[in-house]
Amino acid sequence: MRRPTEPPLTIAVPKGRLHDQVRELFERCGLAFDFAARKLVAEDRGGMVRLMLVKNSDVPVYVNHGIAGLGVCGDDVLYETAFDCFRLLTFPFGGTRMCLAARRDHDPNQDHGRLRVATKFTRFAHDFFHQRGIPVEVIRLGGSVELAPVLGLAPYIVDLVETGSTLAANDLVVTEELERISVHLIANPAYYKFRYAQVDRLVQRLEPCIVAQGVKDESTTG
């Protein structure tokens, strides 16, 4: 419960499936909220948190500029923005894989020692291959990167892969898993230092629900 003199904590949450999963988790923790039609700001019924509904890639921007003190964001988006933030919690949902993929019939011998890669995650791709000493040409795309190998723009893509069904539908296969991606509760460092007691109470409230959901998910898939 929020103390009477404390303003609610501000949290940027991404639109789409992650928003639904966050809302369900918060509801189990007694922090039920819902965005009214076309509204982009909502508070839980107890007034402990004020939530802002934003585009996934914009979450770290709002947190970095202090518009939202906290945010729900994946490692992929955090890496691309390169903003400094604290990772306070890891959620038991939203995890995925950053993968290198190519056409099923692609011959690696055609690469001639240099990879041509299409991706939305240009910073990640540059850094990953440069750290390995592999020459790479990275092409930035904002839409469906799976089209790049199909249409001949680039033989490889770097993208997030969950089930792999979209790759399979376009006759692509994962050639290598590059990194596991998790979703976190992040904090603006200055915001956390100024309101650490209140933020820590929120973290302590969420942790048991996160642990319980993780155990439930393991028992379901085990």
Which SSEs are present, and which pair or pack?
Elements: E1 9-14, H1 17-28, E2 41-43, E3 49-54, H2 59-64, E4 70-74, H3 75-81, E5 86-90, E6 96-103, E7 115-119, H4 122-131, E8 136-140, H5 147-151, E9 156-161, H6 165-169, E10 172-181, E11 183-187, H7 189-194, H8 196-221
Structural write-up:
This protein has 222 residues and is α/β, with parallel strands linked by helices. The chain has 2 domains: 9-94 and 182-221, D-Maltodextrin-Binding Protein, domain 2, CATH 3.40.190.10; 96-180, Periplasmic binding protein-like II (D-Maltodextrin-Binding Protein, domain 2), CATH 3.40.190.10. It contains 8 helices and 11 strands. The protein has a 6-stranded mixed beta sheet. The chain has a 5-stranded mixed beta sheet with strand order 8-7-9-6-10. The protein is elongated.
Helix and strand sequence: EHEEHEHEEEHEHEHEEHH
Largest sheet: 6 strands, mixed
Specify Rg, calculated over alpha carbons.
20 Å
Average pLDDT across residues? 92
CATH architecture of the largest domain: 3-Layer(aba) Sandwich
- Which sequence of strands runs across the widest sheet? 2-3-1-4-11-5
Q: Tally the helices: what do you get?
A: 8
Shape: elongated
CATH topology name of the largest domain, in short, is D-Maltodextrin-Binding Protein, domain 2
Task: Give descriptors for this structure.
222 residues, alpha/beta, D-Maltodextrin-Binding Protein, domain 2, 2 domains, elongated, disordered C terminus
Summarize the structure.
With 222 residues, this protein is α/β, with parallel strands linked by helices. 35% of the residues lie in helices and 29% in strands. It has two domains: 9-94 and 182-221, 3-Layer(aba) Sandwich (D-Maltodextrin-Binding Protein, domain 2); 96-180, 3-Layer(aba) Sandwich (D-Maltodextrin-Binding Protein, domain 2).
